[in-house]
């Protein structure tokens, strides 16, 4: 099974798996008799039964909202689309093993396939939890959880239907490209109880879809290299999303620029040099590009490209994770996933993996083709991708030998509260490294002397020209960059990007147990206010970066208002007894509120509200770009 090892720092910041070579998920659109399609000028032969006058191109992307999981793997057994006239088009040809956590803060281009023209109004996905492998982090270590339905029974196949906003159906027109974006919300789909042994995850799957996506994440294009045009600085990929081994979900033309970075067979380059190097790679080699999709013609422009053995090596295994300790040339890698070139399987490791490096280990830095890294650059807190040989020691603990292999240093992330600032630097009281608990780390050896070893409570970050944050014990910031080389701290971390959580990602999650008929104290066309004194309240918290805020401790329940700048996406999930859940999505807050008011008459109860957006602690207002409400009869 082909596999990809590359940077995904944002997902690491969400307590999730470090692996981007995800198993194939939704919508392997084989409609009209097979694959095919076009994107940004790429094309393949029309499938049987299709012509330019009867079929169009369905460009499907998939992403995932965060949840508290290190791995969340299930089997997707069916995906189909339904037209307005009732015609159903099956899009998933076979059961596919999926780790949903691999799409957090990343959008995957799933297909650019040709399907029949028409007005599509809904999609239905069936997920089989019989052999689910779900892991959560407890006291800094991943632990496998048990999954159950709302009544506490083991889960089997769960079917979920998503009905599109009536004002934004998915239209596929002859000879044209249309895009539909899907978002599986791990937070809204699951309730995690880590006080149980093993941890218990109660599942009510929640997925939304929109034709007006908000692309705030990198989009990934994965497949095999078809051709390269050095004059136009483009290349064409036969699309194989996630870990698909064969076939093609359409041909995608990837545009590059003078600043696009490349890593090809372990050799970094930029711009014209990169596209020239890519032209020397054999057709059929694996290639992965990260970048953006145009909102007008849906063309794709890459900011970063990996190809050949930088995606995977035919004679070596792969490892991805975070370095949590180092002794000499032996690194402890936590939350790791190992890909075996022998059997093609990815394995999430509950135990730490001991990674050995040496002078023969090649080192590259993601996105920095001109860097001159040494082995010392691999320090505690480093996010890494390695190629070598996996194994076990005499006690059966996992090992990984990269002494004759290669390690790519990825972008790392550190979260914390600013304790002090000075010109060009900030001292953090760190709460999390790469989304992992502090208890997972041992900083011995990171400093020029023992007394200088990195200390999470006084962690010095160089900021360069980045703006300095205000000193605060309540407003967290996140820095992206690289850890200081081993044995040379302080400083401890060199940042190139700063994220202020007060103005960016926050998550609101409120539950009402078996459901409440008085969950809202205010429900209007401009805002929602939750009733935090409701006797059915089972939990209410806000997550803002590493900070978790108990909403019942706030001065008042914060109004939830729509993001005026949009685009927004709101959803109502309805379930009744053992019947499959159904979800209606809305682009308009007014339409959403009206539909919710209609739902909440009679005996319908609200069981959960999850919102994603930003929280202003000063005004006590939550501005939401996404809201999901679960109701039941």
In brief, what are we looking at here?
The protein is mainly beta and 633 residues long.
Q: How are the SSEs placed, and which strands pair?
A:
Elements: H1 9-12, E1 38-39, E2 42-43, E3 55-65, E4 71-83, E5 88-90, E6 96-99, E7 106-116, E8 118-138, E9 141-148, E10 157-163, E11 170-172, E12 177-185, H2 186-189, E13 190-193, E14 200-203, E15 207-210, E16 218-229, E17 234-239, E18 251-255, E19 261-264, E20 267-270, H3 271-279, E21 286-293, E22 300-307, E23 317-327, E24 330-339, E25 346-348, E26 353-356, E27 362-365, E28 383-392, E29 398-410, E30 412-422, E31 425-433, E32 459-462, E33 477-483, E34 493-500, E35 506-516, E36 520-523, E37 528-530, E38 539-544, E39 547-550, E40 560-562, E41 569-575, E42 581-586, H4 589-599, E43 605-616, E44 621-632
Parallel strand pairs: 3-12, 7-16, 9-14, 10-42, 18-22, 19-22, 26-29, 27-29, 32-34, 40-44, 41-44
Antiparallel strand pairs: 1-2, 3-7, 4-5, 4-6, 4-8, 8-9, 8-10, 8-11, 12-15, 13-14, 16-17, 16-21, 17-18, 19-20, 21-22, 23-24, 23-28, 24-25, 24-26, 28-29, 30-31, 30-33, 31-32, 33-34, 35-38, 35-43, 36-37, 38-39, 41-42, 43-44
